[in-house]
Batch of 4 targets.
Target 1
Amino acid sequence: MAAVLEVEIGGPVERDVEEVDLSRLSPEERWRVEHARMHAKHRGHEAMHAEMVLILIATLVVAQLLLVQWKQRHPRSYNMVTLFQMWVVPLYFTAKLHWWRFLVIWVLFSTVTAFVTFRATRKPLVQTTPRLVYKWFLLIYKISYATGIVGYMAVMFTLFGLNLLFRIKPEDAMDFGVSLLFYGLYYGVLERDFAEMCADYMASTIGFYSASGMPTKHLSDSVCAVCGQQIFVDVNEEGIIENTYRLSCNHVFHEFCIRGWCIVGKKQTCPYCKEKVDLKRMFSNPWERPHVMYGQLLDWLRYLVAWQPVIIGLVQGINYILGLE
């Protein structure tokens, strides 16, 4: 069988690989035949390939410039379209490839998130809604963080061959690690964008925050601008008793609320005066700082998840119109 697979790349084909019956080959031999067919198909098309690479580079540069301008001039519409694409584009590919496990998780996440988002956008805002929103998205954030770490470790263990200690095949171990890494990063990116949208709606409804312009209410020292509840509660009053945190601008918030605002809601300014928050001071514990770096990584990945498939599809359309294959 090995003699059938003898092909010289760049030279004459000794045996016609097109006549090989792939059903009779092992997976490794089938891959070698398909690899040889690909080289035979594209032999002599070097100039066309160079042109396709130039089209790809030019499209990436132009698309990046347009996206940056769109984000700067119309951030609200940019964020909404990006969120919609991150939510829908993977759904299309997973439905096409019949990845039912991902679809089940996607439906569960979308159902709960839709309910939470609905609560966050209602007017008047129920007093318990801000905490419900931050608790849900903080839970998803922690799960995605842990899932991504486990997936990354599984990939590293496989690359170093440690999977053999547990008698696990390399392809199975790598599939497991990559799948967990994908789940962690994808839902991490998605929940942060939903959380940011909900945080904007809730803060604007409460009145102590305005994305552009001045707040509609004056902030009292005894009120948390994130949830709108009293910070200090008397003995005979009903309210939430918890730790508080004072920013460098001297505004005081519930610690849970301001952490949710900065990490989950992707806000790095004071909810009231918009002074920049010192995240290093807020997360002085070294064990908490990876959460900040993980959040920054998710912000960078959202471009790849949302816009990279669109750009690649645009490049393929240009190549098709120009007759490039």
Note: The CA atoms of residues 116 and 133 lie 6 Å apart.
Target 2
Amino acid sequence: MTKIVASVFEKNNLPSAIFTAFCGGAEIGQAIALDTRIPLVSFTGSTKVGQMVQQQVSARFGKCLLELSGNNAIIVMDDADIPLAVRSVLFAAVGTAGQRCTTCRRLLLHESIYQTFLDQLVEVYKQVRIGDPMEKGTLLGPLHTTASKESFLKGIQNIRSQGGKILLGGSAIESEGNFVQPTIVEISPAAPVVREELFGPVLYAMKFQTLKEAIEINNSVPQGLSSSIFTRKPDAIFKWIGPHGSDCGIVNVNIPTNGAEIGGAFGGEKATGGGREAGSDSWKQYMRRATCTINYGSELPLAQGINFG
């Protein structure tokens, strides 16, 4: 991609280095954060590292655009289209092996449909084909690194120690590559592990009684990127998207937490960082705003009608 973009710049007599890719460790990110020649740093990564970047950039009075962790929930109401919701949860939780900031990590089910929904979801999970993502029909590829695989296994240990019940999966797959099983967990929304982003195909299932309770659970985590509700009721929809609904930057209805945000203002609130990429206002983040007043006359106009003599 860098070479393609560089060729476009060169054809237009512009320096190809305008668009540059650096591969390396934390030292590259730190150098960018500390460099006073870079007025704006757009950072995508974990909340922990994003906080460090923001502190370093702010210390030199630079600006930050942060796209950080997500801990996204899908709420399924008792009147929802169950087959549609099941397919959506599968895509949102298993796609890209759970390695998207908009991956669904929490599934909130109305108590009246809780078991029915879980039974159907477990059945479709069992049909997930794991393997080379370049091969047609593969739904779940590997985790990115060995460290990601170890983080998954450590997360499963924490889940078990905090009372979580593994309904499906929960293990690494003994094979070449960093493959793990897609995992569904029953757990209390009050468990500390639920407040953290486990970057892998792990889905926390929990039940609720009222929409108010579901919204409170959705908003109870530090992160605030994406969220979704499945319902046919207009009053529930408008409560969800209103000021007393989801506190996330992306608030969906009858679609997953991921996959439909292209063209919209992408980003989240709270520990997700508050930045926005794409969408109608994103260009403003990359601009320097200046207020300019030009006097074309020979008089000196002053504000508030002041007469300075």
Note: The domain at 72-253 is CATH 3.40.309.10 (Aldehyde Dehydrogenase; Chain A, domain 2).
Target 3
Amino acid sequence: MTDAKELFDNQIKIQKLEDTIFAVTDQLSRAKKQGEFSSLIAARSTPKSLHCLSMRLLEERISNEEKYAELDDEVTSRSFHDPSLYHYVIFSDNVLGASVVVNSTVFNADHPEKYVFHIVTDKMNFWVMKVWFKNSSLINNTNIEVKSMDDFSVIKASYVPLLQQLEADYKYKFIKYRIMLKHLRFYLSEMFPKLHRVVLLEDDVVVQKDLTPLFLMDMEGKVNAAVETCSAFNQHYGNFMNFSHPLIQEKFDPDSCAWAYGVNVFDLDTWRKMKCTEEYHYWQTQNENQALWKLGDLLPPGLVTFHKKTKILDSFWHVLGLGHDPNIGSAQLKRAGVIHYSGNMKPWLDVAMIQYRDYWTKYVDYGMVFIQMCNFGH
């Protein structure tokens, strides 16, 4: 009778089913967290091939020091400060990523001779970048300036609140310069005092169309131009800042639409008039105890610094998500001006999504001898 009761008692069946569902859900949750953690480790690790490439480039510099001696080319140097040309800025410690950005931009340009690229890296990768771009055959006669962040006198702890905060916290000891490299964007107007407008490109984008219209468009009195992310990704200020803090509550609306880095146009003249760097310093100082956002986060200080100073770009100019969203249609990708591998699955990693990889690899210079030495597959 007891066995029969278990067979036909619905309450017991329901309880067993609920227990099974709970156990499976718990296993799924743990597996998902483990997968996300593994993906994060993979994204933040340097692949052997990329490490090999950096070492080979440094070896080339050491072996041929005279070849890479700094020689001032007056015409080229003048172009670095010529406001009539179209200036791109890339902050990166990834030589392969930066090279794809430059290659794709030049390849799709109507007038590449008018383009100037300013690549800013850290001290460790300075010569890696210099050797690569001196030897690249895909960008002959392109104006490329490579500088270390240490070359800019404005970047010092006595002036930069974030650098002070990072130096005061031991756990940021080994990554503080990597964080600062990304935050250099808040000093564009001081780093390039003679320029009027620049386009900032991240090192995980691929340019597919001529970007000249970005330099000619009306900025409508705004400092920054960017693609909004509230429509496609449901991202608002409330997702990035601590709205339980009274200062954030008072100044901002949690439902305000967020925007993305990746492709940004900055009007440096308006920036200087509106004192945006001073605004950034104010908010970074207020965040000294990380009460507003996590120390080192990049988007929150951008949202507050350029609040009501941002012009929204057409989504054509910047399609995001190739590093995490497997459902972006090929028609949308082919039509886009710039595609962005935002997310952890970067195109140079083994975890990259296969369906998006060819958009990136087509601009890798596989003919470069240093690439051939390091077993980059394609």
Note: Strands lie at 86-91, 115-121, 143-148, 197-201, 205-207, 224-226, 263-267, 310-312, 338-340.
Target 4
Amino acid sequence: MMLHFREPAKLKTKGVIFEDVYAARDSATLENLKELSSKRKVIEDSINQNCYITEAIAREMSGGLTCPFQQDLRKLEQYLPLLENLVYHVDLLGGNHQIAWWTSELKIRALEIVPSDLVQSATLFREAAGVFLYLSQEVFPSLQPTLPAERPPEATSYMSTVMSLICLAEAQAVSIKKAEEKGTTAGLLAKLHYGVAEMLGEAIDVLYSANGQCKDISSCFMEFICSCKALHELSSQKYLAESLKDAGQVGIAIGILHDALINVKKKMPGEESHKSIFRKEVDVAADMLTKCERENEFVWQQKIASGDELPLPQGNKIVNAMPYRPKRWERELAFKI
């Protein structure tokens, strides 16, 4: 999107040693749990930036991949089928209190990965949206009885829904960049930007309707979502004004820009790096307004539209979540219960 949320870069993930949490009944199960821990440890080191291997070794371990983001994805692809197998066998014994206790002791986190290629980025965001949707609809509802009352937001269905919406908004924002490069019409770009704002608005609504759980959400995270929404609304209004001006409706274009600048200035973020981006976008809109007003004064002399005379914004959503289909490496697991 137009802003970058830097807080996740400061997060650290807690180590999980599965064979210390689940008591294996036989040597085969113990080896499978150890392999799962080993695969997770590689991901933990990457997240915590504790990996000190050379680029050549990292490339060899990932099957020749040179991009660090793709190497991280390969690590996840090798870890998730083993984790899915554990989840499958734990679900089979879901009514067992000992299994439920062991599961409640696990604390697992996620990581955001963003490559520079626009097409690949959009695909990855759609895939991520599908994973979060799967967690929200299929995983967390069944885990609620076994999770502790005081749990982090990321272990809730509502937060997974929020993250799915944010990933979709990111995917559409990337698609907009591609559309801008191709010279897509201002009218369509206005609808695409407002589509992003609508997705972020849905995410905000979910957070505030989460039965008071929103108090555990980082204020920086909330500001990030609200600020992104405000910027995409401003971009939508700028493109809409451009489209109307090109159609000779300068008075309406001026009214839209005037309202847009008043609204966005009320939503100035506290984060300094975000403020600079806000000011830049506001300056662009202000310059556009000044030029339109000058042109209208000397050429068009149209009445400046306001209030109900202004068109309502319209959003267009062109991305959807790619369904997540879990892959499981079928291996028998037996526990001492």
Note: Residues 19-96 form one domain.
